[in-house]
Structure formats: structure tokens, C-alpha cells
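Aggregate trends can hide what the representation actually does to any particular protein. The sequence in question and its C-alpha cells are set out directly beneath this paragraph.
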Amino acid sequence: MRYQRGRPLINTSLPFRIASALVFSIIWPLVQFINSLLYSTAWKNRVKLFRLKRAILVSNHTTPLDPLMVAGMILPYRTWHTLLEATVEAPVVGTFTRLLGGIPLAPGARGLKQILETCDTAFRYKKFIHFYPEGECYLYNQQINEFKPGAFLIAAELDLPVVPLVTVMSEGLFKAPSFWSRKRPKETLVTLDPVYPSQYIRRNEAGEIEKTSVREFAEAVRRIMQNEITRRGGSSAFYRGKMERVKGING
């Protein structure tokens, strides 16, 4: 059931959806228990998501377990998670990630075109599509890198709000790297207010979206998220750099 290039990005058959629900119901509690032990995970402002019929979700990417943390934020609803195409094509891992809602995202214009063509179908089954606009996982990072514009172009094309989800890494009671400090940060995922494309997107005389306005949209959302990290005292003391990709899977 792993993704094969040229096939539909998502499998909406009844057997697959039943298998997906079963796998999620088993895996999510287990991984969330581990996540809570490692990072004392907490969520803030979840209710803001429940008021929306459809939305594009974006978040900074700080740990390998982020997709499950995002899934916990929106329960009882589910989201599609965009992942590197190579990950979803990989044997075993590809099947597993698809069952958990993974959508392959090909590089460049091809990936955006495929996602746009799939959105109508995707939104019939789940309320959200989630992106990591930094494009990589930066372990425990609290200085958000420049966003790639893809998620924001899709939001503009579909006239959907973008909901920023911000992972804040805090030191807790004792400052790192003191003797009493935690070896890992405390993790809080915060839902911010929706940001609507109409606030930033401009079209030319032919009705086409101006690329510069998409980048302005992306940068505005990035700044909003960075300001929230600063406001909540996000700590860079634990930063470990960009997570290496896995050879044979997405390396």
C-alpha cells in the first residue's frame, strides 16, 4: 500500500480507511505516551481549530514525532500530513505513513500541481492538510527558518485560511545547561488565529496570483509564529541542528 509514482496521492477506498483508523487508534496513544515522557507535551488553544470547516495547517518542525503531536492537537478530527515523496514511496515506511494520513509531496511545481488536483477529494474526508513550510526538521529549533511558499500558494488558490501551529521549546524551572536542567526541553504546541489569504494576496490584470504576494503571505505567517515563540519564552539552548535524512528512505 505504499505510494507508487503516477498513482493517486491518497487512497480513499473503504478497506484502506478502516485500516487507517485502526492503525491510528493503536499508534497514536503509544507514541503520545512516549512524547509526553520525553517532552512533557502540552497543547494550547485547540478550540480555535474546531470553528473551521477547512484549513491549511502550517507548523515549525522540531522533532521526528511532530506529526503525532499535530494529530493530537486536532482530535477528534484528523488531518492529512504532507511528506517527502521519497518517504511515502519507501517500502514498509511508505505504507505506514500513508495509513497515518501521509500525502506524498513531490519537489517543485509538480508537487504543488498534484496537491491542488487532490484537494477536492482530500477535504471530503478530512478537514485539514498540514505542511512543514521550512521543508526540513530542525531539532528543537526556536528560530524559524524562511518558509517555502507552496502551502501559502495552495491556500490562496483555494481561498482557505492558514492556521499556524507553533511548537515552543521551554527550559522549565532550571536554565540549561545547568546541572539541574532537563536534557530535553518541555514542548508546547500552540494554535494561533487563522490568517486569511485576502489580507496579503494580490492578483495581476489577468487574474493570476502575484508570486511576490505569496512570499509576503508566507513571511507574515512566519513572523507571527516567531513572535509567539518569543512571547512564550522559547529557548534555543537545546538546538541540535538539521536532522539528517534516513538513507534508503528519504536520504
Q: What stands out?
A: The radius of gyration is 18 Å.
